[in-house]
Amino acid sequence: MNRVTIALAFTVCLAPHLFAQRMATTTKLTLIQNATAPLAFSNPALRLNGTIRPLPGDRLQIVVIALGDVPIEAEGRKFTLIAVGGATYEPIAIGGGADLIFPLDRLSLGQEMGQILPSDASLAVKRVSRTSVTLEADPRATLAFVYELPEGSAVRALRLPDGSELALGR
After folding, report:
1. Exposure check for the chain: N or C terminus, fewer CB within 10 A?
2. The pTM is what?
């Protein structure tokens, strides 16, 4: 084994760790808020619109993050909201901003929802199986996630697909 092979092997083994560090350091929390009213959604290209309402005893939580210079391709449900007590919640809606959300359960198998954001970055969300929705976003995109959680629950962090966490500082 020569030096180039050793260096390449070391880089390949280290690459996932470097990606995780980079994603956590370039992703910024821009908004966290409780939705005080039902959330309207619309996608003219898919000819779908409606309202997202929480179940009785639950509330909607919106979390918006901004990507840095790193594009992302990940399972959408890996953006997990973590409550103070340790409970985790998967997003029920995703979009390019708090006013651009789209409910995941309204995407049919194989269907894709795309958005071009004010930053000129694009976001694509696609249903690839009954339980899997992928998300692809360009660098400098904003991503909004809507979660349904019990009223009165407090949240502490957003877990990113690479396992790193963004503190929500509530």
Report:
1. N
2. 0.83
